């Protein structure tokens, strides 16, 4: 791989066709000789701008948009016009603009997809067109070197549920983050949405809805569709033409996320962000927090509220790390976890009908709960569990905004000196507790990390503000994915993920100063993901999963040298070139 800055691109487009092609368009930054070669001299105003000047102008235009959603729409249009300018602008204002193109604002853009629609981006594999799936796939990928597929069926978008075809919005946002933070060349990434209908009544009743207006396909018909996808897409096409690509699954429903991951894991480099990315970033934040409390992972009593895709992914990742780092058996490590779902504590007497198979190893025995008050259905509420087990760690991934009430947080703070509290549900309004409140209710003692960005908290007794770490999988997945891609890894193993999480934890500001944030700032996210990619690539080589001719001590050079950057490449007209 080489960066655009170092290699001229040969392009077969001319006139308007190059000006409307977001990959090659430079707008007013086309230099005079390229204007001449591509027939643009009379199509552009005289003055040639630098990318820096274009970014300044675009930032001024953006600033006139008065709501986050309007800014999001503006940036989407900019991306449709000129990738280099889009990524160049966001890179220059990373911390300010990531929340606009990603969580929380992208949730609103997704929910309003059909109304904001201007121009399509990505690949739509729709249930009614399934017989044409192979051709639809080839149309967009033929002859291309694809390194990344980001794929969603939109059943569980962020915490806002089934969003039908609007789910394309999460795959393009995740892809853009791969480019910004992981250096993936955007021309080598494809966002895919599987439109299998929706059960979202608002969408179904909306005559402007642009997806397939049908109830969500489930059961055998869904499995058949996925099977077709597998036969048409993964086996002959992806493996044949893009054998080293990474297949990233995002925001599938709880019943499909883990199943798909397990199914594909041995066949290709696959990654489920909600399970593995979330597990990894939460592990890093927790490693950092136990560094502050000077304890071990094994010493924690961990309460996970919301035992869905993310909740179980986090639990297993933390459990596996305890086994690996503190050297105990899985059964021993499992005892450190208490899971809650909509039916309260996950305990034996709920019966197997309520508890998903995947949760079985974390079911708590009934005799532990004798004498603890229950509701009329025999369920144990969050407050009762907190009072009984005195958790050191409380993690929220329930989509229930405000579920960590004052009473619950104060009870937790009574049982432990430095409560570790991670409200991870997105977007911001679904956070289980506003970190500012948790800070006040714990007298500034809580160690916190949240799924979406929140402002720093004032210390109740003066002193330094507490920076709430953003514990979002975007802080780690671009590096995990890029580390796998650059080494052409045959799979993305658990040890590669743990290596990435450990590297992330080692970069935490709290390591040096216990009053600082538990994770690095998003302003540094590109550097952080580069380091993560290096750790992952080294681990892939150590494990024998890499398929590259170079050695471990060359990893850093390859990782850094292979990263795409938003810089205009030199363009040369060639009738047989790219188009
Ligand atoms: N910070 C991150 O990086 C990150 C990553 C992934 C997911 N998330 C967030 O986590 C949330 C969950 O995502 P998911 O993909 O796991 O969704 P999911 O639907 O698979 O899981 C949500 C779980 O919460 C449970 N739940 C619902 N109401 C509850 C209640 N009152 N009490 C306890 N549990 C309840 C549901 O039954 C379900 O099991 C979302 O808001 C998502 O944005 C954050
Ligand atoms: O998309 C995010 O912001 C993180 C995560 O994947 C989620 O589903 O919330
Ligand atoms: Mg997600």
TrEMBL record:
Active site: 102 (proton donor), 174 (proton acceptor)
Malic enzyme NAD-binding domain segment(s): 275-541
Signal peptide: none
Matching Gene3D superfamilies: Malic enzyme, N-terminal domain, NAD(P)-binding Rossmann-like Domain
GO biological process: one example: malate metabolic process
GO cellular component, one term: cytosol
Annotated positions binding (S)-malate: 426, 472
Needed co-factor(s): Mg(2+); Mn(2+)
Molecular function as annotated in GO: malate dehydrogenase (decarboxylating) (NAD+) activity; metal ion binding; NAD binding
Keywords: Metal-binding, NAD, Oxidoreductase
Pfam families: malic, Malic_M
InterPro entries per UniProt: Aminoacid_DH-like_N_sf (IPR046346), Malic_enzyme_CS (IPR015884), Malic_N_dom (IPR012301), Malic_N_dom_sf (IPR037062), Malic_NAD-bd (IPR012302), Malic_OxRdtase (IPR001891), NAD(P)-bd_dom_sf (IPR036291)
Sequence positions that bind a divalent metal cation: 250-251, 274
Protein name per Swiss-Prot or TrEMBL: Malic enzyme
Highest classification ranks of the organism: Eukaryota, Fungi, Dikarya, Basidiomycota, Agaricomycotina
């Amino acid at each position: 791989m080489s960066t655009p800055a170092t290699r001229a691109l040969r392009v077969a487009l001319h006139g308007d066709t190059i000006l409307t092609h977001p990959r090659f368009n430079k707008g007013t930054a086309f230099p005079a000789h390229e204007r001449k070669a591509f027939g643009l001299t009379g199509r552009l105003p005289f003055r040639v701008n630098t990318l820096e000047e274009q970014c300044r102008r675009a930032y001024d235009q953006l600033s006139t948009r008065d709501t986050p959603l309007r800014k999001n729409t503006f940036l989407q249009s900019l991306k449709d016009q000129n990738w280099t300018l889009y990524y160049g602008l966001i890179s220059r204002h990373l911390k300010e603009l990531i929340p606009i193109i990603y969580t929380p604002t992208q949730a609103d853009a997704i929910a309003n997809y059909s109304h904001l629609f201007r121009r399509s981006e990505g690949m739509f594999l729709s249930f009614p067109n399934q017989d044409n799936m192979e051709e639809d796939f080839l149309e967009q990928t033929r002859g291309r070197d694809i390194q990344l597929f980001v794929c969603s069926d939109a059943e569980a978008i962020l915490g806002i549920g089934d969003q039908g075809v609007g789910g394309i919005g999460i795959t393009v946002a995740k892809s853009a983050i791969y480019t910004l933070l992981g250096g993936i060349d955007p021309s080598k990434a494809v966002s895919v949405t599987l439109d299998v209908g929706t059960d979202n009544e608002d969408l179904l009743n909306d005559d402007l809805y642009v997806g397939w207006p049908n109830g969500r396909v489930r059961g055998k018909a869904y499995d058949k569709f996925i099977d077709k996808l597998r036969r048409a897409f993964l086996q002959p096409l992806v493996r044949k033409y893009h054998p080293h690509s990474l297949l990233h699954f995002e925001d599938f429903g709880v019943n499909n996320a883990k199943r798909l991951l397990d199914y594909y894991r041995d066949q290709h480099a696959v990654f489920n962000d909600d399970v593995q990315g979330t597990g990894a970033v939460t592990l890093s934040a927790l490693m950092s927090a136990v560094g502050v409390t000077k304890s071990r992972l094994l010493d924690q009593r961990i309460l996970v509220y919301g035992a869905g895709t993310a909740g179980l992914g986090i639990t297993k990742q933390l459990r596996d790390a305890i086994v690996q780092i503190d050297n105990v058996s899985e059964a021993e490590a499992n005892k450190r976890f208490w899971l809650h779902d909509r039916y309260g504590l996950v305990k034996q007497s709920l019966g197997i009908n309520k508890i998903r198979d995947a949760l079985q190893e974390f079911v708590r025995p009934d005799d532990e709960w004798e004498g603890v008050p229950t509701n009329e259905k025999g369920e144990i509420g969050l407050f009762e569990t907190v009072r009984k087990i005195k958790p050191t760690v409380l993690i929220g991934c329930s989509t229930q905004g405000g579920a960590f009430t004052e009473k619950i947080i104060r009870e937790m703070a009574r049982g432990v000196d430095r409560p570790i509290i991670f409200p991870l549900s997105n977007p911001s309004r679904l956070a289980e507790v506003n970190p500012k409140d948790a800070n006040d209710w714990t007298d500034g003692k809580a160690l916190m990390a949240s799924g979406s960005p929140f402002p720093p908290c004032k210390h109740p007794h003066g002193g330094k503000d507490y920076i709430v770490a953003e514990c979002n999988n975007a802080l780690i997945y671009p590096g995990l994915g890029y580390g796998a891609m650059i080494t052409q890894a045959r799979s993305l193993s658990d040890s590669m993920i743990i290596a990435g999480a450990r590297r992330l934890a080692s970069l935490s500001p709290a390591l040096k100063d216990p009053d600082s944030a538990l994770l690095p700032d998003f302003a540094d996210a590109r550097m952080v993901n580069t380091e993560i990619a290096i750790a992952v690539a080294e681990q892939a080589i150590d494990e024998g999963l890499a398929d590259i001719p170079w050695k471990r001590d060359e990893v850093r050079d390859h990782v850094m040298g292979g990263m795409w950057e938003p810089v205009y490449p030199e363009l040369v007209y060639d009738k047989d070139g790219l188009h």
